[in-house]
Each structure stands twice: as structure tokens, then as C-alpha cells.
Design goal:
This protein is mostly helical. The protein contains 6 helices and no strands. Helix 1 runs antiparallel to helix 2 and helix 1 packs parallel to helix 3.
């Protein structure tokens, strides 16, 4: 929900007709959501090698469900809601669990979670004030999401297969830190400008 994008089921402008909740893309998205507890369990069992493949499969399913929704014209309001929730649930859960295991710094997981809570909280406040925000995904936010995914996958791969690439991991950590701060600030500025 924090970063609306043109993903599974997002209603398009024009003559779009909601395909309803029971579609193949929605089933794939739901399966990705259900993969979250499995990935967490694998990490807590110190099977980061298997958790890496669950994470990769979830990433592939994210592309597949969006593609199917477009080519089959089966976009839906449920899919538009469920897709970013599934993405964020997986990403945030992986960061928190990797931090708990000492693979990633705990402050980074806190920063990633806080940024998403800040954006969601801001949206809710604007709704309560009677000013529903028009949130457009920013380029810095897209970059941040890509870097967060790359770091999570890299951390799972390196730790799961006991590979030594500490320098690359540290670079990833600082890139994610910088883009997380920048994208959070950019959304705050965007919301403030719309309020003005």
C-alpha cells in the first residue's frame, strides 16, 4: 500500500471493468502473501538458503500476476489492494527477521518499517482530514524498492550459502539507508505540497 504502482489488478483509466476477486492473478498474489509465514519460518530455522528461493519465487510471482492481469484483462480492485500488501508484507518481514538473526543491522529494519508506517500513517491522516491523497510512485521510491529487494535477496543468498561478500553487503546497506531516507522525505514533501 505505501507505494501504489501499476501492478496486479490496479484499475486503469478508461473502460476498465473490474474482473472480480476470483481471478488467476489474484490467486497468485494470495499465494505470495501466504509465502510470508513460510519464509519467516525458514529463516528462523536458519534455512536462509531455502528462504532465498522462496523470496525469488515470490518476486517472480509478482511479475507474473501483473502480466497475467494485463493480458487477460482481469484487473480488479482486490488485486490492486492485495498486490502491494503482499509485496510489503514479504519485504518488511524479511528485513525484520534478518535483523533479528543479526544478518542485517537492526537499525536498518527499523528504518525500513518506520518509513512505510510514516507513509501509510500520512495517507490515513489525509483521509481523516477529508483530503484523500493522490499518491504517485516517485522515481526515488522505485529505486528504493529495487535496492531493498536486491539487498534482501543478497543477504539471504550470502548468508544461506555462506558466501563471503561483506563489502558488497555493506554497500547495499548504505544504499538502502540513503534511498529509504530520501524516499520517505520525498513523500512527506509531496504530501505537504498537495496540502498547500
Amino acid at each position: 500500500m505505501p507505494e501504489p504502482a501499476d501492478t496486479t489488478g490496479k484499475p486503469s483509466s478508461g473502460s476498465h471493468v473490474d474482473a472480480g476477486p476470483f481471478t488467476l492473478p489474484n490467486a497468485i498474489t494470495f499465494a505470495r502473501l501466504c509465502a510470508v509465514p513460510g519464509a519467516i519460518w525458514l529463516m528462523l530455522q536458519h534455512r536462509l538458503d531455502l528462504a532465498f528461493w522462496v523470496f525469488v519465487a515470490a518476486g517472480l510471482s509478482d511479475g507474473i500476476d501483473g502480466w497475467l492481469a494485463r493480458i487477460r484483462n482481469s484487473r480488479s480492485a482486490l488485486g490492486a489492494l492485495m498486490d502491494p500488501v503482499a509485496d510489503k508484507a514479504l519485504l518488511v518481514s524479511v528485513y525484520v527477521t534478518l535483523a533479528a538473526l543479526g544478518v542485517l543491522p537492526d537499525w536498518l529494519a527499523i528504518l525500513v518499517v518506520f518509513r512505510d508506517l510514516l507513509i501509510v500513517g500520512g495517507v490515513l491522516v489525509l483521509y481523516l482530514l477529508g483530503q484523500p491523497p493522490i499518491i504517485e510512485p516517485l522515481w526515488i521510491s522505485k529505486l528504493n524498492t529495487a535496492l531493498q529487494i536486491a539487498l534482501a535477496a543478497g543477504a539471504l543468498l550470502l548468508s544461506g550459502y555462506r558466501l563471503d561478500a561483506d563489502a558488497a553487503l555493506q554497500i547495499g546497506i548504505w544504499l538502502v539507508t540513503a534511498t529509504t531516507l530520501a524516499s520517505g522525505a520525498a513523500y512527506v514533501v509531496q504530501a505537504a505540497r498537495r496540502r498547500a
